[in-house]
Structures are given as structure tokens and as C-alpha cells.
Write a structure and sequence with these properties.
The protein has 180 residues and is mainly beta. It is built from no helices and ten strands.
Length: 180
Amino acid sequence: PKPEPVTRPEVWLGLEAGARTLVGPPVAPAGALAVAFGTERAPQPLVRVAIERTTVSSIERISGRTKTLLTAARVDGCPLQIAAMVAGAPASLAGCAVVDVGALEAGVDGPGARAAETRPWLSAGLAGRPSVALTRSVAIDVILSGFVPLVRDRFVAAAETYRAPSLGGVVGVGLRLRFP
């Protein structure tokens, strides 16, 4: 039998834009800078690391404006990929386990202002990542994931309360560039 060719890992750099929600409103715009290691050739695994900063909640009240920010590193481990051709372009669907580690910051601007509080953020979930290669070096991803916050802190600031709910989701689209 002929030996399988050795597949060299690829490095992709991507920018993503989307929305993050924690069970219902508000839906917050999200942006991330991501680096992916692996290969787009199924069934090879893929690992993706992203840095995200998101305004999770911003509510205007008489006592001031409460604002909650999430800064997190997100790691997607995608052991399962399915490849196909879509309209003549290579496409894949990856099933991923996802972990977010970071900080959740909440504070109030205005008359009731006080120093923002920062607490740890940890969540785990699952994601589906459909991808279509536009060229050998450019791909478009769609991000669909659900997660469960493992740390559910409660913030009280100027009589306003924010508590991380029990479920959340992320929907987005990304553009990836491959480096040889």
C-alpha cells in the first residue's frame, strides 16, 4: 500500500464579528482576533485560539449607565471535521469543544459612579464552525456556539444588579487568512 502523504499543519489568522448573548436580551456585538492551527483537510483536528472583548450589557438608568464588559481568551478544540465541495469551493464543518477564560467587568457611569468591579469568567460549550474556502489562502467561517458560564458572579452597583445567566450563545462570521 502507498503511504499517506504527511500533512503539514497550517496557520490561519482571522478577524471575527458577531453577537454574544446570555439567554435573551441584550444581544451584544462581539469582535475577536483569532489564530487557528491545524489543517482544513478533514478529518485532521483543528485548534483555534481567539481574544475577544465584548460589551455584554449597557443599560441607561436614572442612577447612571451600567456597563458590563467581557475580555476573554477562547480556545476551540475541533477534533471532528467533515469536508465537502460547495458550489465548486472546498468547504468543511467542524464540531468543537469551547472554553472561555477571562474577566467580566461591571461598573456605573454617571451620578452613582464608582470604581468598576472585575471578576473571573469561565465558560464551556460546544460550537459548529462551517467554513468555505474562497481561495487557497482565504476562507469565510460561520460561528454558532452555545456555552454555560461556570462562574456566575453577581454585581451590585448603584442599586443595579447584573448576574451572568445560566446559558449563552455566540453567532458570527469570520474571515481567515492562511500563512504558508
